[in-house]
Amino acid sequence: MPAISFKERPYAIGSWTVLRLPKEASAQLPSRGQVMVKGTLNGVAFQMPLEPDGNGSHWLHVDKIMQKKAPAGAGDTVAVEMEAVKDWPEPVVPPDIQKGLVDDPQIRPLWTRITPLARWEWLRWIGSTNQAETRKRRIEVAASKMLAGERRPCCFNRNMCCIPEVSKSGILLDPGQK
């Protein structure tokens, strides 16, 4: 896949800094859902997933480390060059999910047999709620579904923005929205 290049301005949503890809850049990606990319932001190398924005495009979380290294804060124009990659790294598993899925002796072999992309999708589905009780229930449901042979969460719109801190009703918030 050829490199995708563009310039854009990140913006703040609460404590997050996000960079929404221009539609024409996002259109070059292989999926409207989550896509793993590697590239540079202001010359600083990164590899991370692009999240769908719920409107057919994607966005990138410009975390505090990248903001400092690049530098790239909200409102700054940044230069991005990136390409989609097929190999997904292992995701960081939050402690509650580690305990509820990965450390369970029945689930562990199932967890290790699915692809890293499938593990990312389970984590994304479980994490797409602000409610602790819903999250706990999703861990239980994930375990049940995996024991039943399901390799990925079903009934989950992979094209929606599912990070509660930056979205509402599956759509990435615009600057200044809450």
C-alpha-based Rg, rounded = 17 Å
Instruction: Round the mean pLDDT to the nearest integer and report it.
Output: 93
List low-confidence stretches. Answer: none
The CATH superfamily of the domain at 4-84 is known as AF2212/PG0164-like
Shape: globular
Q: Describe the oligomeric state of these chains in a short phrase.
A: single chain
Q: Could you describe the largest sheet, including whether it forms a barrel?
A: 7 strands, antiparallel
Strand content: 15-25%
**Proportion of helical residues:** 25-40%
Fold and architecture overview:
- The chain has helices spanning 23-26, 64-69, 95-102, 108-113, 116-126, 132-147; strands spanning 4-8, 11-13, 16-20, 35-41, 44-52, 58-61, 78-84, 167-168, 171-172.
- With 178 residues, it is α+β, with helices and mostly antiparallel strands.
- The protein has a domain at 4-84: AF2212/PG0164-like (Elongation Factor Tu (Ef-tu), domain 3, Beta Barrel).
- Strands 1-7-4-5-6-3-2 form a seven-stranded antiparallel sheet.
- A hairpin with a 2-residue loop joins strand 4 and strand 5.
- Helix 3 (95-102) runs parallel beside helix 6 (132-147).
- The radius of gyration is 17 Å and the shape is globular.
Can I get a quick summary?
The protein has a domain at 4-84: Elongation Factor Tu (Ef-tu), domain 3.
Map the helices and strands.
Elements: E1 4-8, E2 11-13, E3 16-20, H1 23-26, E4 35-41, E5 44-52, E6 58-61, H2 64-69, E7 78-84, H3 95-102, H4 108-113, H5 116-126, H6 132-147, E8 167-168, E9 171-172
Antiparallel strand pairs: 1-7, 2-3, 3-6, 4-5, 4-7, 5-6, 8-9
